[in-house]
Write a structure and sequence with these properties.
There is one protein chain. The protein is mainly α. Among the domains are: 191 residues, no CATH class; 209 residues, no CATH class; 61 residues, no CATH class. It is 52% helix and 2% strand. It contains 27 helices and four strands. The strands form two sheets. The chain has a two-stranded antiparallel ribbon. A hairpin with a 2-residue loop joins β1 and β2. α8 runs antiparallel to α9 and α13 crosses α14. It is flat.
Length: 664
């Protein structure tokens, strides 16, 4: 009825009627362009010949009106068509594509601009209000496909409408059942709004103190015993009849008041347990905390998680340390029990029942994704044992503890010094973490990090958590600085052209130099002889360049070096001559070691190599070829003597002479 009334209220106005007729003609043309319907493709001004403004101006009949009246008339015409289509078609029908075409036309008109820039999102907001959750998913298909186009122009006039429409939709959605859709809405807002927008920034650092965790502070056993013993007798308890629990930081005495049970009498069963245990500290630490006593302490931690500034009080901080230590010990004990049972699967997967497949043929990855949803946990005492046996629950609580421990570590003097010059003082606290509490927080963070890395996918899980927390620290620093603009100024055209030219010069092919840097000078190969013929290569082929020299070749050079040493005047000159002489003597020794090793015994002075230069004597039976190899040239020709050595004469084998025979 409201749609009909709003439509009838605008009838009879000539400008509205003419604009309505023009818009309907544009819709008919769009139907011809998209006969199959659907969201894609998006309509552009070229589909209408680029004459949208001409069509709208012609509809005004040549009457000059101000912009405000024109905007009002065009908005009324758009709403009339929108309400008619919305009342007559369903989102599942193919004809509903006229709604998408109308939104495209309104978007084109707002870019010119011929209507209010936010009109398209006003219509989208009303469209979301009129649809079910499944229909809203289809609407978001349209928004996701047109996001860049819808937010390209006049975003300041549209941002509040986008924020209001998305927040209203999020209030309708369930965080447990519609988690994926909630993520789509958040992603749309994150991609639409600039990175440095302050719309979702808590500048004053306010905490969600309204989030109060309600739990049962009275044990069921104590309530039954209290009713049975009511008025019968008074139970006298010894002053020392308290339960002592040991944590990593020391002993914790837990009585009825500290466990959140003030005003309730203690049962005889619990009284029997309140015996002071005198045992070594290491054995006390290994004891598993009692689940019944841990229940109120565990859920009372949520009050500190929702308001961390309560830790500035010493009593609250001590109780929080004790409670977190007890909780962590209980979690480790539960995990050890599960590992001792030899379960190969995760505890959360072992207790999770088989999920039946939803209608519509959803794939298996969606079922796996649905298994990771975290609803609001129940605080019933009867469910506490089952909850702490779930790995996902333990990780959820420890991540909360990790966030709070990081908050405490940001209050150290070193961390506060980095933020002392920031402008937003509302997120800076005067409280400074003491040294003892700093050591506890550091140790607790290491223990929680080690625990979260255990399991099949523990390494990946902790890496994800650590990445999120590290990025959150950067956002906190940005917020403390007053949220400066996260925007890079555009590059000047001159700088871009200059950098482009530099890149071209760098990547251009290089001209080869005639003599590259570090190369040898080979011009000696072009040296010509007397007749003008090049003989540089022939010089390189001389045997003197590759044949080993004789030992005698170094004799004259070493004698010259000895003479130069005697006549040298400066120390630098003596040093250079000594180095050259040492090199020649070393080469002489190397050459002489091959065929004159027997002469090394005659060397009495290391600087006198004269015995090596003497010609070695040629003994009888020595091979003359060997003497020629050594370069020994005799002054007179060597005569061969016919000397028989072991029956060998001139290389021929001779037989010995027969013995003489005596004749008698």
């Amino acid at each position: 009825m409201d749609l009909v009334k709003s439509t009838m209220s605008s009838t009879g106005i000539s400008s509205v009627d003419r604009l309505t007729a023009s818009l309907r003609n544009l819709l008919e043309r769009s139907n011809e362009l998209k006969p199959d319907g659907g969201i894609e493709p998006a309509l552009t001004s070229t589909n209408f010949g680029g004459d949208l403004e001409t069509v709208i101006r012609r509809a005004e009949g040549g009457v000059t009106v101000n912009a405000q009246d024109h905007y009002a008339a065009l908005e009324t015409a758009c709403r009339n068509i929108f309400y008619d289509l919305l009342a007559s078609t369903s989102i599942e029908e193919t004809s509903f594509s006229q709604i998408w075409n109308l939104l495209d036309i309104v978007s084109l008109l707002s870019d010119i601009p011929l209507c209010e820039p936010g009109l398209v999102f006003w219509l989208v907001e009303e469209l979301l209000d009129s649809q079910t959750i499944d229909g809203c998913r289809v609407v978001f298909d349209y928004l996701d496909s047109r996001r860049e186009r819808l937010t390209a122009k006049h975003f300041k006039q549209k941002q509040l409408i986008i924020l209001r429409a998305c927040n209203e939709l999020l209030r309708r959605l369930s965080r447990a059942e519609d988690t994926v859709f909630c993520g789509r809405v958040f992603i749309f807002m994150f991609q639409s709004f600039p990175l440095g927008d302050r719309s979702s920034v808590n500048l004053r650092g306010e905490y969600h103190v309204e989030n109060v965790t309600v739990f049962d502070k009275t044990s069921s056993k104590q309530a039954i015993i209290s009713d049975s013993f009511d008025g019968a007798m008074d139970v006298d308890q010894a002053p020392d009849a308290t339960r002592k629990e040991t944590t990593g930081s020391g002993d914790l005495t837990i009585d009825a008041a500290s466990a959140g049970q003030s005003g309730t009498p203690q049962s005889p069963e619990n009284a029997a347990k309140t015996v002071k245990i005198d045992a070594p500290e290491d054995k006390i630490q290994e004891q598993e905390p009692d689940t019944e006593a841990l229940y109120p302490i565990f859920w009372s931690l949520q009050d500190v998680f929702s308001q961390p500034t309560r830790l500035f009080e010493t009593s609250t901080f001590e109780s929080f340390k004790s409670g977190l230590d007890l909780t962590f010990r209980k979690f480790k004990a539960v995990q050890q029990h599960q590992q001792s049972r030899g379960t190969s699967k995760l505890p959360s997967a072992a207790h999770r029942p088989l999920k039946r497949k939803r209608a519509g043929g959803e794939s298996e990855p969606q079922d796996d994704l649905a298994g990771s949803f975290n609803p609001r946990y129940l605080t019933s005492r009867d469910l506490f044992d089952l909850e702490i046996s779930d790995l996902a629950f333990r990780r959820h609580i420890l991540v909360q503890g990790l966030i709070l421990v990081d908050f405490l570590l940001s209050l150290t003097p070193k961390a506060k010094k980095k933020l002392e010059n920031t402008s937003n003082k509302s997120v800076l606290y005067s409280y400074t973490l003491p040294e003892e509490e700093f050591k506890w927080a550091t140790a607790m963070r290491v223990e929680i990090a080690t625990y979260l890395q255990q399991g099949q996918e523990g390494k990946f899980y902790y890496r994800m958590v650590d990445t999120v927390l590290s990025r959150d620290k950067n956002w906190m620093h940005w917020k403390a600085e007053g949220c400066p603009l996260i925007k890079q100024p555009p590059i000047a055209s001159e700088s871009f052209i200059e950098s482009q030219k530099g890149a071209q010069r760098t990547s251009a092919p290089k001209r080869i130099r005639p003599t590259p840097m570090g190369s040898l000078d080979l011009s000696f190969l072009l040296n010509t002889g007397d007749e003008g013929q090049a003989h540089g290569l022939e010089i390189l082929k001389k045997p003197t360049r590759y044949a080993l020299p004789r030992v005698e070749d170094f004799k004259a050079s070493i004698m010259e070096d000895n003479l130069d040493l005697d006549t040298a005047k400066t120390e630098a000159e003596k040093e250079s001559i000594g180095v050259a002489k040492a090199s020649k003597m070393w080469r002489t020794l190397r050459l002489a070691s091959k065929n004159r090793l027997n002469l090394f015994d005659k060397l009495e002075d290391a600087n006198d190599l004269t015995p090596l230069f003497d010609r070695p004597p040629v003994s009888q039976g020595d091979d003359l070829d060997q003497a020629k190899k050594e370069g020994v040239e005799s002054e007179q020709p060597v005569e061969k003597e016919n000397v028989a050595v072991n029956g060998v004469q001139d290389g021929a084998v001779t037989e010995p002479a027969p013995p003489a025979i005596e004749v008698t």
